[in-house]
Amino acid sequence: MKKPLIMLLAFTALFSCKENETQEQPKREEEQAIAPVSNDALESAVIYEANIRQYSPEGTFDAFTEDIPQLKELGVKVIWLMPIYPISMKNRKATGDLSVEDIEDPEERKKYLGSYYAISDYTDVNPEFGNFEDFEELVETAHENGMYVILDWVANHTGWDHKWIEEKPEYYHKNDKGEVTDPINPATGESWGWTDVAHLNFENEELHEAMGEEMKFWVEKYNVDGFRADVAGEVPTEFWESIVPQLKEIKPVFMLAESEDKDLFENAFDMGYNWEGHHIMNEMAQGKKTAKDWDAYMQKIDTTYQDDDYLMNFVTNHDENSWNGTVKERMGDASETMMALTYTLPGMPLIYSGQEYDMDKRLLFFEKDTIPKEKGKVWPLLEKLGELKNENKALHGGKEAASYENIETSEEEKVLAFKREKDGAELIYIANMSDESTNFSIKIEGNFEDYLSGEMIEISEDKNMDLKPWQFFILINK
């Protein structure tokens, strides 16, 4: 009797294995729905910063996932999710200098949802957004639509509810009394004001390994395609240079640093923030700097960075919008001119949630708010710019970026003009970076198509051009 029983068990086990293989097949197909991250794919990419809490009235993964196919219309190839993890309750910021503990009314206290960057668990999802199944569907939908998904990673600090506070206090900076501290400004010895988070101390080697395991969790289990590193320069470069190769052993990943530090690009990050360029754009829009200042900046970064370093260009992001003002507040009538500039520069342009819908309000940071969802002037412009970025090699902006060459004009203070070129594709950006009409000559010759209007424009060195305030052209060769 034993032999037939053994054969039956063996057959049952074999059938079970085959059934499991069949059940797992959809996962393998999903993983192949998009080619692995590569430099070629990133050359023509637009990145979208998704604020899940504020993206929809529901503030959920599912509500955002529904709109992912629409992002293809804007040329988006990378989705950066702001932190999706549970948020600490202890020391949670409320309003002004108050924390939730200072609010006595329990109903009033409920409306303060805290900072996304005060994380209580790196390997869980914020229940306000949904569950892991909802998150998996988001990633799968993005991949099916040709988009990579990167997570916002906060290695510099945790929330005060994180289990490491009790279990691994040696992971944190402490004061003279042995108390864990929030991040301290080393120049002044005073708090930065981030009182809702506890400062991690990377002098502890065990922390390096523990943090690395938390990052690998998302790549191995949920197939994410990389990370945006919050305050990347405040975390030792050695940590990033150690963990990134480990992540790439699992699969190719894309790494974005919230920093301009060129040393971070050596062995860790693919792209950094163009903070300095962004601030110059604001100042040009406000009449505090000129097109000539921009030319000087481009010459500076040409000598600062290696040829394969590149930066993210933006007119807004979550910090700028909530703390420094909307695009219209900061850039006024120059808004579209600067937005077009972010697409035509070397690097990768960013769209922040709501920007595509002409959002002209500062989103609340610690409370529920919602972006507008009505298409106005910005959506069709972003659609056109995204198509150009995706398809024209003259706008390649990654490790093998198209060339950038300044074009001389007779009004160097007011007129910004440059040419991008790669593999026979050429593009010229000309803009009046002032609030006055400008007549000028420019050192180029030929017939060009104005990409946005479709009209042909003839330009010659002996014939002056006129531009209205903040008027710009994107000229392409046909």
UniProtKB/TrEMBL annotation:
One of its GO terms (molecular function) is lyase activity. Residues 9-389 form the Glycosyl hydrolase family 13 catalytic domain. Gene3D superfamilies: Glycosidases (3.20.20.80), Golgi alpha-mannosidase II (2.60.40.1180). InterPro entries: GH, GH13_cat_dom, Glyco_hydro_b. One of its GO terms (biological process) is carbohydrate metabolic process. SUPFAM superfamilies: (Trans)glycosidases (SSF51445), Glycosyl hydrolase domain (SSF51011). The keyword Lyase applies. Keywords: Lyase. This is Alpha-amlyase.
